[in-house]
Fold these 3 entries.
Entry 1:
Amino acid sequence: MSLTPSRRSPQGRSLAARLGQSRVASRIEDEVRVTAADLVDSVAQARLKVATVRYKVEDEVRSKTQKFRSRVSEARAKLGDEARFIKSWIDNPSRTGSVTPSSPALARRMASFVDPALPGPVIEIGPGTGPVTEALIERGISEDRLILVEYSPEFCTLLRQRFPRATIVEGDAYALSTTLAGHLQDKAIAVVSSLPLFNQPPAMRSALAKDAFTLLVDSAPFIQFTYSVVSPVPRKGSGLKAFVSDWVLRNIPPARVWVYRQAV
Ligand SMILES: C[S@@+](CC[C@H](N)C(=O)[O-])C[C@H]1O[C@@H](n2cnc3c(N)ncnc32)[C@H](O)[C@@H]1O
């Protein structure tokens, strides 16, 4: 169709011009609409990115704060244990036997001689604030298999809070079978001792080991650490075979672990 200038609209503009303009206008309108939609899309994507970054930052801050808090409370607990130990040592140095709890390295070495796959309870004597107890649990002995014999009432209170599923017996480990009467249903698979044995005469140490073996299954170990260079359980005529570990240097002072079993 040809549009001649003779066909004029009432406003005096040709139809062609008006048609042409409206096509241009509608193209512009379309482009504006697409651009606006793109813009809305970009804004939404930018918002999403900002929200994702904010979430990540908040998450990181939250986890770092949590880690920091747990390190602070670990340090507080460690300091608390050191203080409790010093207090216990001041109250009764020969019973406490040390001014500081055993290091995790020494505790782990002691626990390494217990086979968690064997069924049955594990007796710990002289658990103090519980570093060896923790290592035994870490080794795979469930808390409810642990029978802890501790003389100090303060340490017993702490142990009950820390290991609520373990059996805590407040009493004298040098009278072990009497102290444990009614607490032990089955024979144990190990006795793990941190008692300061050298503060007692040899006969008493021998009697302790002899008594302990009556509570153990055959070939189960009696495990004892010492800072001394000689065996804490007298060996002559004991009928025991013994193994001694190398020095655990990451402990103050360095210590060795003795493992005794009944010779068959
Ligand atoms: C050298 S500390 C060891 C504590 C802890 N196992 C460690 O390794 O850090 C000795 C512990 O044995 C306890 N103890 C001393 N004589 C005891 C006895 N006759 N019966 C039970 N516990 C005793 C003390 O109260 C103290 O907690």
Note: The first strand starts at residue 122 and ends at 125.
Entry 2:
Amino acid sequence: MESCREEVLQWRVSKNVGLCEPNNGVLPKSVVCAFSSRQGGVSTGAYTSLNLGLHVGDRPDNVVANRRRFASAIGIDLEGWVAGNQVHGKDVAVVGRKDRGRGAFSQDTSLAAVDALVTNEAGVWLTCYCADCVPLIFWDAQGTAVGVAHAGWRGTLAKVGLEVVAKMVGNFGCAPERIHVLIGPAVGSCCYSVSEELARLFEREFGSGPLTNREGQTFLDLKAANREYLVRGGIPPDQIYVSGLCTSCLPGIFFSHRRDKSPTGRMAAVIGLRER
Ligand SMILES: [Zn+2]
């Protein structure tokens, strides 16, 4: 299985908030996309400092303040954020301007039991929340439709990424060969040791491709597994960009559920279409 290409994301500090954005030229001009870090927020303790997850036990007012900071840093409005109540599933919600703000200020208003969102309407900022799980970001080459998915090992094996592609094709008329995907910062095969049972589930799907053995342990490359499913689903390999950033390797930059245990914070991946 092919390894990561040159890093697709660049680090930037905007209004004191640290974040990662795709390199210049990767996205169509109409598309906004960013990945948050843990730097630049108001949360304390295990959530220090830019925790963007409302569902992990942090003070809600701090999380909303952090979200406002991150939204402002990337030039979007928190009023337009949309979030799903993530359950490690494969369901995708098609959302639009009517859904602006769902899950932005309260977990109760998020879309129930969805790990992925798609839209073709401007000003709808699709989000997902991860601390090791893989954020998948989708856009079509014309810059008229976007998607996001949260893929831990369960979502990966459920092919949540291909469910997003199917929704973009079925609802917006996108062609798979015109869809681009960015696989964001997540726990890497450097740090993700898995049980033999879990390794066997992946081996059944991919052979030994995403698995490596060292020091008596088996390590899984979840990003590579997601990439492989997308290639099998018709996404051109050169339109899949894989971040080499490992959330577990970079404690000053990212939260990591495996490294820090519970409680810890969450980063957000955001994508949307600019309002013109
Ligand atoms: Zn690592």
Note: The radius of gyration is 17 Å.
Entry 3:
Amino acid sequence: MWDYTDKVLDLFYNPKNQGAIEVTDERDIAVVFGEIGSIACGDALRLHLKIDVPTDSILDARFQTFGCTSAIASSSALTEMIKGLTLDEALKVSNKDIADYLGGLPEAKMHCSVMGQEALEAAIYKYRGIEIEHHEEDEGALLCTCFGVSDNRVRRIVIENNLTTVEEVTNYIKAGGSCGSCLAGIEDIIAAVEKDKEATTARVEAELTRIQQTSRKLTTVQKITKIQEILDEVRPMLIADGGNVELFDVDGDIVKVILKGACSSCSSSTATLKDAIEVRLRDRVLSSLVVEAV
Ligand code: FES
């Protein structure tokens, strides 16, 4: 017995938006469907969209599925999530968003959320006349012949869902779930993604350390000089609005400035201090600096 959330069970027993959308000849309306999976594999989903052409947005969404409890609940959830979205917004809906909407799915059923996201993409690509029904980056060498999954698709799913084991990959896109001859290839991809992640983390940490060291090394004179440089950058913008700014003092991390002219009486002077000056100072001089008007 799978451990389903109440939301999954509710949408399974009371599915929303089930069925097809009739093709219509209404003006400015397009009806399209995207299909994913195959009945031979046990899961198939056809997602229908009714699109308002002028606004490029989804007026209605319905589904037909040949699948299990999770497939029905995921499809139902997806149709609820995308109604009213523009197509570009809908393309940003990930399989994780679908699973989150349901309060989670059993690991072994995550492929149902992936199927929903891919059917959505297939429908939108079809409407836009894009031939491929999958992510362009999914094109690549066929890795799992049993389920027709390319190496690039495995890589994308591993990255997007932070997967770390072959079993998880099988749960998400079925690859590796039959003869097993692709398991070593999937393991290699997971290892390569992990290695890339570690390299990126190391790069980011090195950069942070460099920034911190640079900041720490500043003498008081250097710090004040840098602050002055940034005030000089901001000044023309303030002068154009009838104002000005001058450095009054630097007391530890507190940078005291005098706002002049229009800036001194301007209601948005706090925003000027924070957005125009403090953000720049924190970014380029020291992350702990606070700007105050005196
Ligand atoms: S090739 Fe992947 S399970 Fe058979």
Note: Residues 38 and 270 are 59 Å apart (CA to CA).
